[in-house]
């Protein structure tokens, strides 16, 4: 299949949103609840949705736990919610949403027995069945060291940098809500230069030209965003004097976060994945335990795609996995290299099915997903992140295991 992104001279844009964006607040709260439960019960069934608005958090969903500690964590959802909001940075009641004064409404019940029946034991073998039907995509390309498309990679790094400078006090006037957008100019198959960068960040009144309703975001503050936030994350070879900057283009951004817009879990699925590059199966990630293939199979599809590119078998690849509820094995596996494969796509597809575990249980075990590792994924992207370690209740867990390229050599060797 021809790749529409591989043409002479074109622009492509991706966006990211900060941890303080209302939809991302909702995602982080859903994943914080998930982590708090599976830290005590790795086999808990969790599907947690969150809504945030002015002064209010609503947590709803289906949760089934199997021990007293997990039951206690479930009963302490309100404490988890407030602690997470505090960590995000909503600590001041004057901005319309903060961890102390917000109300928390908890609407959680048990998982459907009909769904559990299919998940706990698959119909076709003794494996764990998929928690739902659906199709998931993974993508990788050689545009960055992390094998991510450049526009979404840079967009994530910009909001990540905004959070860093807000939290360490370098830019004291920053508030948690922000968005970034990066447009890259391509020449043929490769990024040529950065064309446009858009940053809209919430701020206090100290950076307005006037402390009145007609005051606007100052030129000095715009320059600080360009020099301290944007420039440090743009590769030097792509930086150029012709970059177009739009910094807080509306003029001011004081009202933001859940007070400015209602946030919902799962409403930033393109930000969470590849910024519009490649296709998307439609399923969101946050708040879902790893038996939900919307999440775990999307992680595996990324892992497969990244290892294919890292192996040198293709410069760009998209992997589709599809499942039926209660059935362990995928109903289809599809590999598309957009004409960049060094061997036949049929052979790559066969190698994938021989090399990677693709049943829900196989995915969970291989990527070590029965662990409280999901809250960090809910801001700054689920993909293109460095694997690391996180400590929870004194235990150490691996994070972003799907970003490893540990099977690249195996693929390269078996392809010969």
List the helices and strands and how they pair.
Blueprint: E1 10-17, H1 22-38, E2 45-53, E3 56-64, H2 68-75, H3 77-88, E4 103-109, H4 113-120, E5 134-141, H5 150-167, E6 174-187, E7 190-203, H6 219-230, E8 244-247, H7 257-260, E9 263-264, H8 269-272, H9 293-311, E10 316-323, E11 332-336, H10 345-355, H11 360-367, E12 388-392, E13 395-399, H12 408-414
Helix pairs in contact: 1-2, 1-3, 5-6, 9-11, 9-12
Task: Give a quick set of tags describing it.
13 strands, about 425 residues, alpha+beta, four-stranded mixed β-sheet
Number of helical elements: 12
- The helix/strand class is alpha+beta
Helix content: 25-40%
Low-confidence stretches: none
Q: Could you tell me the number of beta strands?
A: 13
Termini distance? 24 Å
Q: Main sheet, how many strands, which sense, barrel? A: 4 strands, mixed
CA radius of gyration is 22 Å
Which percent range describes the beta-strand content?
Answer: 15-25%
Which of globular, elongated, flat, extended, rod-shaped describes the shape? flat
Concise summary:
The chain is of the alpha+beta class and 416 residues long. It is 31% helix and 24% strand. The radius of gyration is 22 Å and the shape is flat.
Give your account of this protein's structure.
The chain is an alpha+beta fold. It is 31% helix and 24% strand. It is built from 12 helices and 13 strands. Helix 5 crosses helix 6 and helix 9 crosses helix 12. The model has no long low-confidence stretch (mean pLDDT 93).
């Amino acid at each position: 299949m021809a790749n529409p992104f591989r043409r002479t001279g074109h622009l492509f844009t991706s966006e990211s949103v900060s941890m303080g964006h209302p939809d991302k607040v909702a995602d982080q709260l859903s994943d914080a609840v998930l982590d708090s439960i599976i830290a005590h019960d790795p086999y808990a069934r969790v599907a947690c949705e969150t809504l945030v608005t002015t002064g209010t958090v609503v947590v709803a969903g289906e949760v089934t736990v199997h021990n007293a500690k997990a039951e206690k964590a479930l009963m302490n959802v309100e404490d988890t919610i407030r602690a997470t909001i505090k960590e995000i940075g909503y600590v001041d009641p004057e901005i319309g949403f903060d961890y102390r004064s917000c109300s928390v409404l908890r609407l959680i019940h048990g998982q459907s027995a009909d769904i559990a029946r299919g998940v706990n034991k698959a119909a076709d073998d003794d494996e764990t069945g998929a928690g739902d039907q659906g199709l998931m995509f993974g993508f990788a390309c050689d545009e960055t060291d992390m094998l991510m498309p450049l526009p979404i990679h840079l967009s994530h790094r910009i909001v990540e940098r905004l959070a860093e400078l807000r939290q360490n006090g370098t830019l004291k006037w920053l508030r948690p809500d922000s968005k970034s957008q990066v447009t890259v100019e391509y020449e043929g198959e490769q990024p040529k230069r950065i064309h446009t960068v858009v940053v809209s960040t919430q701020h206090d009144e100290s950076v307005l030209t006037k402390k009145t309703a007609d005051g606007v975001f100052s030129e000095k503050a715009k320059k600080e965003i360009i020099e301290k936030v944007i420039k440090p994350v743009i590769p030097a070879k792509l930086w150029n004097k012709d970059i177009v900057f739009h910094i807080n283009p509306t003029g001011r951004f004081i009202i933001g976060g859940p007070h400015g817009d209602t946030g919902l879990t799962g409403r930033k699925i393109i930000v969470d994945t590849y910024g519009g590059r490649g296709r998307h199966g439609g399923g969101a990630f946050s708040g879902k335990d790893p038996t939900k293939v919307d999440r775990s199979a999307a992680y595996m599809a990324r892992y497969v795609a990244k290892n294919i590119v890292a192996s040198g078998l293709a410069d760009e690849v998209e992997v589709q996995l599809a499942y039926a509820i209660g059935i362990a094995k995928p109903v289809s596996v599809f590999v598309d290299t957009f004409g960049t494969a060094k061997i036949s796509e049929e052979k790559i597809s066969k190698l994938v099915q021989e090399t990677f575990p693709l049943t829900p249980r196989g995915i969970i075990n291989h990527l070590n997903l029965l662990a409280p590792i999901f809250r960090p994924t809910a801001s700054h992207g689920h993909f293109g992140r460095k694997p690391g370690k996180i400590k929870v209740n004194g235990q150490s867990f691996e994070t972003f295991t799907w970003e490893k390229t540990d099977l690249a050599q195996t693929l390269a060797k078996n392809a010969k």
